[in-house]
Here is the input.
Amino acid sequence: MQDLKIAAIQMTSIVGDIEGNLASIDRLLGDAVSQGADIACFPELSVSGYNTNDRGGQARGGQSENSGRVPPVVEIPGEVTDALVSIGERHGIWYLVGLLERDSSGIVYNTQLVISPNGIEGKYRKTHVPTTEIGTWRHGDDLPVFDHPKIKFGIEICYDTHFPEVSAALAQKGAELIFMPHASGGTEPPREKQARWERYVPARAYDNTVFAAICNQVGDNQAGAVFSGVTFVCDPAGKVMTQSEDGANEEIVIAQLNAAALDDARQVPETFFRHFRRPEIYDVWRNNS
Here is the structure.
């Protein structure tokens, strides 16, 4: 790992309005670059918008073939991803965006796409699908780790963060940072949502000695959901380094991640917990579950 700045971005994503969402991504990414960010993370389904009532239609010219309130599904590569790649090339930065992906078999996934100035670096498909999302998209089965020039990182999308095994697996595979893009709605005020998230997100960082960055959609998605913008970054000791100030508006949270902080945290054997892992007994539990 090298010292770097990351941007965790809370963004308003309108369901079905790919053209408008792309414009927001372009604008916010430019602002993040102006603040010195080396990599930026947008929320879950930031491109398509979040709605589990219908999986939508093929994206054409930035719009769904169904109602504008239905999240469009895109193919990778395709017209929409070409536009995202162009944005990355223009700003010269790595960034993560969420969209509904239809693969060649026709299956729809909730996907976080990783883009660099050189094009698409890879993708992560949400691996844990809760009851409200079953039937809208399928779960993925892989936990990739990505190699940014300055840091190795993994991704967990929203509900994935409730499963400690995901963070442990990513850390064991070399992740030094875990991005946690969300589209978490409901009636919780921002303070209550952050208090709930702080009961487990810092633990993911602390137990695995990694940085963790969580961001959420914010505002009205014009499809019946309003999101509280909660965004924060934890250091490898599980402490909140920086956080959003406004739960109702778009905001960019910049965090300076120092390699020394990670190295120092991993020099203490008793608190670098992965040093004492015993996978042989966990495998027995897993195989009998």
The chain has one domain: 4-288. Residues 4-288 form a domain with the Nitrilase/N-carbamoyl-D-aminoacid amidohydrolase fold (CATH 3.60.110.10). The chain has a mean pLDDT of 92. Helices lie at 18-34, 79-91, 164-172, 190-197, 201-208, 259-265, 279-288.
